[in-house]
Write a structure and sequence with these properties.
Elements (H helix, E strand, L loop, with lengths): L3 H18 L7 E5 L4 E4 L7 E7 L12 E7 L9 E7 L5 E11 L5 E11 L11 E10 L1
Antiparallel strand pairs: 1-2, 1-8, 2-3, 3-4, 4-5, 5-6, 6-7, 7-8
Length: 144
């Protein structure tokens, strides 16, 4: 048994080492996007759900910008180091809602980046105006 111990140790390290070298992207924390908006994502619960806040730097309304709540979900990673996710922001200062979907990446320099696409839905009074009620865009977030 004494001779088998070093062999088992080497085999264990060989199996564990690849997972140690692969950096994981973690959603939890503070982020800023390419437009200067700030977002804070809280800890994920056991179902992969999270809550947080979003302070946009841009708006199409003349209302005063306020921090808005967000709710989201991350895919169950199952060992994947760069998970996909989605979240909804219910804007506190306007009659709009935005949904984001994206993926959390670790770049070649080891920095975490969120690549997202979003749909912003504005309230319209008449169905005939539905055509102009949804906007689409992309954002890249970097950890603060």
């Amino acid at each position: 048994m004494v001779q088998a111990t070093p062999l088992l140790l080497v085999l264990s390290l060989a199996l564990v080492a690849p997972s140690l070298s692969k950096e994981k992207c973690v959603l939890t924390g503070r982020w800023m996007n390419d437009l200067g908006s700030n977002m804070t994502i809280g800890a994920l619960n056991g179902k992969g759900e999270f809550a947080g806040s979003y302070l946009t730097a841009v708006t199409a309304t003349t209302n005063e910008i306020r921090v808005s709540p967000l709710q989201g979900s991350q895919q169950r990673t199952n060992g994947k180091s760069q998970p996909t996710f989605g979240f909804t922001v219910n804007w506190s200062f306007s009659d709009t809602t935005t949904v984001f979907t994206g993926q959390c990446f670790v770049d070649k320099d080891g920095k975490e980046i969120l690549k997202t696409m979003w749909l912003l839905r504005s309230n319209v009074d008449f169905i005939k105006d539905d055509w102009k009620a949804t906007r689409v865009g992309t954002n890249t977030f970097h950890r603060l």
